[in-house]
Write a structure and sequence with these properties.
Rossmann fold; 10-stranded mixed β-sheet
């Protein structure tokens, strides 16, 4: 098991860029909302050494970076090789960095196994406040209590990791009050906002919440807003 001591520390949220499917607009959105940019191994290939936007660090087992030597020479970029194979490159980044939250791009989408690994990591490291950004969705581990302002009919999906009970909800077409969701049983996909304002309370932090991609800022507010900050 790797050490959980973090060699990198930031006061603002951090953008984590993976080597998977990553639209430029999603990378740009993550960079615009964060203070540092870290590549998880092959995520460095979405950037060019010595050019803007720059990377603050590359972290991983370094088996996928096309031009590792150029990144070693790039001004202002730290290269942190971690050779253990018990964790993904995304998890290596998370245990190597302390930050208020993380916006992850390139971990969620084209390869289903990578997507499932990232969802597993939401449950495994709830302390890290990770928001995953994909082409169609944004995803985060539910706080115990959260609220969001979405347009009427906006999609809201709840996927248990592996089981969660809802205590109360408002603003959803199909209320969650008292419902328990389980992998292998009922799950809460394709619910909808009614009047736009949603509040949800869960008994545990053991479900992934999915919003449509346009609600990235709403997802960030859910994760690092006042209520979730008090629960950390």
């Amino acid at each position: 098991m790797p050490s959980l001591s973090a060699p990198l520390s930031y006061d603002r949220p951090v953008a984590l860029i993976g080597g998977g499917e990553a639209a430029q607009r999603d990378i740009d959105a993550a960079l615009a909302r964060t203070g540092a940019t870290i590549a998880a191994d092959g995520g460095a290939d979405h950037f060019t050494p010595g050019q803007s936007p720059r990377l603050d660090a590359v972290i991983g087992d370094m088996d996928s970076v096309r031009d590792l030597q150029s990144w070693r020479r790039a001004e202002g970029c730290r290269v942190l090789p971690i050779q253990e194979q018990d964790t993904t490159d995304l998890e290596k980044c998370l245990y190597s960095i302390e930050a208020p939250a993380f916006l992850g791009v390139g971990f969620f989408g084209a390869r289903l196994d990578h997507t499932l690994a990232a969802l597993n990591l939401l449950a495994k490291r709830p302390d890290k406040r990770l928001i995953l950004i994909g082409t169609e969705d944004v995803c985060f581990l539910t706080p115990l209590r959260w609220r969001a302002q979405l347009r009427p009919n906006a999609r809201v999906s709840i996927v248990p990791l592996p089981s969660v009970t809802a205590i109360a909800s408002t603003g959803l077409r199909w209320p969650l009050d008292g419902l328990t969701f389980d992998i292998g049983g009922a799950i809460g996909t394709s619910n909808q906002a009614t009047d736009g304002a949603i509040t949800v309370e869960f008994a545990s932090r053991s479900a992934a919440v999915f919003f449509e991609r346009e609600y990235l800022d709403a997802a960030i507010d859910c994760v690092i807003g006042a209520d979730s900050a008090r629960e950390a």
